[in-house]
Target: Siderophore-interacting protein
Amino acid sequence: MTRHEHRTVRHVLVRRIVEVRSSKRITPHVQRVVLGGDELHGFVSAAPDDHVKLIFPNAHGELVFPTPGPNGPEFPPNALPSPMRDYTPRDYDAERRELIVDFVIHGDGPASAWAEQAAPGQRLGIGGPRGSFVVAEDFDHYVLAGDETALPAMARRLDEMPAGTRVHVLAEIPEAADRQPLGSQAQFRVTWLEREGTDAAGSRLLELALRELPERPGDTFYWIAAESRRARAMRKYLAEERGVPKEWIRATGYWTAAGADDEEE
Model:
């Protein structure tokens, strides 16, 4: 068997309508929404950093689903499109048919605004996940580095890691009160990096913490998710300055700062 062999799993794209079962603020900047319904039957998420497309009610309170077109998603003519955003499935209970999604509350945008007022009985559309990137489980060490938007994926990855795995999490958050309880069978360490008022796009806490990590014996896989330009910079540092093979790095822009390009890694 090839060492450090990642897998890509493709899923049948399914669109579903679900409803809010519960909604609560778990930290000052994170709203946890539990979605449920019979249409979640058969839902599959094979990797901790999967994403689903959440489809929110439009200004008329309607869920308007797009269909695939030659230039991307196309909405019915004369219909007001529903806003759509990508989110990580934090957890899924197949028996209860309940999906947990954590929303970062940042004061603007349709997803944040919806999550702040989410209440039981409200409906939401879901598409996907379309595919999963399953990271090899035979690395000697794993480093997970991300801001608050990456916390659901990092927390879920910790949940699913087998006993004996060595993991170091670098978690950048707005303030100390945004720390979340994390657990795992793995041997893990968490370094919380609190911005305390610094703009998330301009922060360099993750970058500095990554540079300060000591060299470890054996092979290390790096998973990074943050603002797009920051994620690219960290990947470049690992590849060019530390000589980490590109297959041992997965760096993704989870959001894009105003005025920046939106290229995703």
In short: The longest strand covers residues 15-27. Residues 71 and 77 are 15 Å apart (CA to CA). The mean pLDDT is 94.
